[in-house]
Amino acid sequence: MAPQPIVIVGAGGMGREVLQLVRDIENHSAGSWEFAGFLDEVIPAPNLMASVNAHYVGRPSDTTCLNDLPSNCAFAVAVGSGIDRSVNFDLLGSAGLEPATLIHPTAVVGSVVTMEPGQTVCAGTVITTNVRLGVGTQINMLCTVAHDVVVGSFVTLSPGAIISGSVTIGSFATIGSNASVIPGVTLGEGCTVGAGAAVIRDVEPGTTVVGVPAHPISGR
Q1: Which residues are part of the catalytic machinery?
Q2: Cβ–Cβ contacts within 10 Å for residue 51, how many?
Q3: Cut 0.90: pTM above it
């Protein structure tokens, strides 16, 4: 079977990490993906593209560019902002492209895990059982998602985040690097948990919390 072409939206650091993820999947399971280039609103530096043996295709907002992609082309959106991922999902979806789900070969994903389209699960992550992941979730390296967790759409888990059992995470939330959330907590839509924070109580929608234990930033 011929590999399926895939474009990556976002040619920054996360985009290059996702390119490595695609290549690791291809090396592990030959015939899965064929990288078709980067899409980005900002033209990346040629030397940066050369450093990862990649090329720039065009802007995701350019319908002519999207129409020139192979008819069976999939896409991955490799930007940190959940809102920006949502916008790009809409742009590429309206052009007839399908979101790819990318799971690194070293990730451990339980058999009772429900994933909506467009997941990115990076190296070393563990997702246990009875977990639901919404559209466009981005789970970075070495994260842990325990039993009975419900994750909304376009959520970002930064490297090393630990989500304990029975946690609910609202759409567009961002969990910082090495942050931890105790069992049973609800994180509201659009909230931000700072790097290294320890969340021991519910977080209101749109709130930013930091520290150990995590507390809201004054004035937000």
Answers
A1: 147
A2: 10
A3: yes
